[in-house]
Amino acid sequence: MALYVYAITGASHPLRLDGLTGVGDGRTPLRPVREGELRAVVSEAPEEIGLTRPDLEAHQAVQERLWDDGTTLPLGFGFVAQDEDAVRAVLAESAEQFAARLDELAGRAEFSVKGIQEEEAALREVVDEVEEVRRLNEVTRDGGGTYDDRLELGRLLLDEVQARQVGLAEAVLAALRPHAQAERLSEPSQEYFLSASFLVDRERAEDFVRAAEEAAGDLSDGVEIRVRGPLPPYSFV
């Protein structure tokens, strides 16, 4: 019987699974598969697994309950093993690695940090502060100027906004790094100039959040820093 696997824990984890159900239409009960000093929390796998809201919520609810009660190694959505023997084989093969990672993550949590800047505010700041951009903006207003003028204006705007957002991200990271044990950075996108995950000692969680708030307060108008956490350490397993 195929099994859907949610997380790996140590033998001392209370595994408080009452009231939880697994992914799939049947909402199957959860149970542990034991191997040595490790446990894998599983349920019977549905025939088909899709990125549906009920399944995602069920997956997350299990992981958050487990994490609330102790250290876990959360698995990504959709992890399926052939049967209990396959689960035990993985636990046995990587026992030392899993145990070491559980020790490293004990007492720590993940915080997700996103940096957002309103596009209009970013462009307005560049136009106000960069003389050549301001000149080209005046020249090309109402369809004026040459094609090269418009091309150069677009290039300058893009370069300046990107350079300033790199500076914003570096300022936020510099403020947060002293309060974290590890970090994972994602490439900036059109939506976020900063997308990062931090591993933070739970006893320092308030200091981390306070540092993020202070860093946000020092930034220009139109810039927002969003902090989500504490979370299971998804990015650090």
- C-alpha-based Rg, rounded: 24 Å
Low-confidence stretches: none
**Could you tell me the number of beta strands?**
9
Taking the sheet with the most strands, its summary is: 5 strands, antiparallel
- Overall mean pLDDT score? 90
What does this structure look like?
The chain is of the alpha+beta class and 237 residues long. The chain has helices at 53-69, 84-93, 95-105, 119-129, 131-140, 147-176, 205-217, and strands spanning 3-10, 31-35, 38-44, 72-74, 80-81, 108-117, 182-185, 194-201, 223-231. Strands 1, 2, 3, 4 and 5 form a five-stranded antiparallel sheet that branches. It has a four-stranded antiparallel sheet with strand order 7-8-6-9. It starts with a strand and ends in a 6-residue tail after the last strand. The model has no long low-confidence stretch (mean pLDDT 90).
Provide tags for this entry:
four-stranded antiparallel sheet, 237 residues, alpha+beta, 24% strand
List the helices and strands and how they pair.
Elements: E1 3-10, E2 31-35, E3 38-44, H1 53-69, E4 72-74, E5 80-81, H2 84-93, H3 95-105, E6 108-117, H4 119-129, H5 131-140, H6 147-176, E7 182-185, E8 194-201, H7 205-217, E9 223-231
Antiparallel strand pairs: 1-3, 1-4, 1-5, 2-3, 6-8, 6-9, 7-8
